[in-house]
Structures are given as structure tokens and as C-alpha cells.
Amino acid sequence: MPRIRLRPGRRARGTARTLPRPRAGFTLIEIVMAMSILLIVMLTLVTMTGRTVHLSTTAEREQAAIQLVTDRTDQIRTDPNYAGLDSTYVGTETSFATLQGFQRVTTVQNVTSSGQNYKKFTVRVTGPGLAQAVSRTVTVASP
What is the spatial distance between Cα 8 and Cα 47, in angstroms, rounded to a whole number? Predict the structure, then answer.
């Protein structure tokens, strides 16, 4: 008997059996699942990128504040004019070209101990984006 070739999805005469159709494409459930996974991955990447940018900006500002404090304490330590340190460095500065909103405050406390005079300078920098003020203290002895 000759064999009859049937197309998928067609039934041979006199039989109840149909040939299975080959799958073409994706089902709706597969597409929804793939889109859900992609959405989760994309949201994670966006969140992590935002946090990284925030941390980088905060670290950059903190480093700038530390540099302002260090510059001032180095100037105080290397100035040979002990008598004029108070008038030269004590005060508040707010004009920093690249650091808008930053403020550097330098204060002095005169200390006498065992007949020796000391000046204790505290430099404090505050500004936007800093979690807390950056402060350093340096003590300078009279010559």
C-alpha cells in the first residue's frame, strides 16, 4: 500500500490521530517571563549605577574638604611668623572657585603649659554633600 504523506495538523482518513504541529516561535508565557527577568536586571543596573554615582560624588567632596583642611594646617605649620599667626589665619573663608558652598573656619586657642606658650589651631570645613564636617587641629609652639 502506498504511503500517503500528510501535513502536520491533518488527519489521515479513517484515523482519529493527527500529526503534531511543529512549534514555531515563543508562547505568550515565555515572552512575559523573559520580559520580567529583563526588567529585574535593568532595574538592578539602574539602582546600582545611581548608588555608584552618589558614592563617587560624596567621596570627591570629602576629599576636597580634606585637602582644604590640610592646605590650611600646612600653611600654619610652615609660617615662621609666630606672633602674626592669629591675625593671618583666624577667620572664615567661603570663596573657593571650584567648591561652591564650602566654608573653612579657622579658630585659635592660646595655651600656656609649664611656662611654654602654644597656639592650638582648629580648621573646620563644611559644605554641601558632606556627611559631616571635616576638622583637624594643629598645635604650634612659640620659638
Answer: 49
